[in-house]
Amino acid sequence: MKVRVRGIYTTALTRLFLDAGDDVVQASPPIRRRFDAEFDAETHDVAVETTDDRQGVGLTSDEAAVDRARERLRAVGIDAFAWADPAPEGAVFDGRVIETLGGGAVVDLGATEGYLPYRNAADHVETGDALRVQVTASTPPWDDDRPQLGTEVRAHDGLVTLVPGQEEITVATHDDAAGRELAGMTDLLDPDVPEGWGIRWRHSATEADMSALREALDGASARAREMDAALSEPIGDPGIVVPAAGAWIWFGRESRFALDALRREVSTTMPGHHRTKAAANAASSGVDLAEALCSFEGGGEFPFGVVADQFGPVEGDTVRIGHGKPNGRLITLGSGEVVERDDEGTVAVERTMSGGGRYDALGTKREAGDTALTKFREGRWWYPTVYRGADGERKGTYVNICTPVECFPDEIRYVDLHVDVVKHPDGRVERVDDDELDAAVDAGHVSEQLAEKTRQVASSLERAL
Q1: Which of 186, 202, 341, 345 is deepest in the core (most CB within 10 A)?
Q2: pLDDT, tens digit, 9 for 90 and up, residues 187-231
Q3: Domain segments of the chain: what residues?
């Protein structure tokens, strides 16, 4: 398959796809230099883009290619998770407005919801309106945002986009001469574009040959005809009208270090390259400078203390606890103060609890003024939380088993693996929620390999407590 890759994981994933026998296309100048190779400027079967929060990648385009790429990426590491996208970019839905907000409307799409900014709507929008919309920007399952929608549909195929109601040929490029040349060449392709659709080329098309341009136009034209057929039908109940393919991959800490190893085959790579870049946008330039100045031969250990001193967290900071779930959802367990942090990767977070109810699995009463001290350790498969009353009396210890912890500047991140081990105030140790792990395996959210690792960790903790 032909793959287009962008973002902080590009070098490693280019190596991965090439090793699998795939063709990487539309490569950026840095990738061409690192691989000392020429890459075709053909249209792609699947696009791989780093998510805005740098935690993973999104896949879009051809269904078969998305499925193949998804399996390749899920195999990167034991803590890589993959989920199908219910509303991928480019898909067209019939929807119904269920709520209007200050800047846009919430639209029921059937299997999920989307957000239609008023600026993307051709007409005034009110609650109850039936609309035909296209996904213009999708969102990963761990993000709280809804996929963004528009009422104007477009047909995409890698190098080109067909736009209804546009008559002229346009080229999105900073190279005016190359743009004029491509616009002039388009007629030579004898394009069979449906009536009423205009041609908008991407910048990467200026480097493509005639056969690649023709392939892209044919693909976009076929999709435009599919959309024309759908648009001729009346709007029905919320649901998909013109499908598209998409998936999301979340990389855990072990997966990021596996990607480091792949990148190291191509270019100088510091220990924790992807882990550091995932922590903050500002980290990228620091990593690039370090790799330009140093060799890092033999790899070495991830310099947690150095990275945390520069970007956080440090004592006194407030961090969120990002409790990921194997189905892709992200739950924030609240925020706390960093009361301890060392250079080996320990980050202790203290929270003051509100009253009401009882602590899960422990059964002890939750009262106002209680404190929860959680000690996270970068890279560890579990973390303990000790609950105490306002008088200092211990109310129990709850040990959460999870994918290797990552202590980012503003948030502690991991994916919860369901099984937990608790120690009651009377010293009794109990293991809970094995059935939830089994259900996650049956649902395809957790691999059997990861589940077995989880059970091993739980057994070790039972003995240790």
Answers
A1: 341
A2: 888 888 999 999 999 998 999 999 999 999 999 999 999 999 988
A3: 2-86+247-264, 92-152, 155-231, 318-464
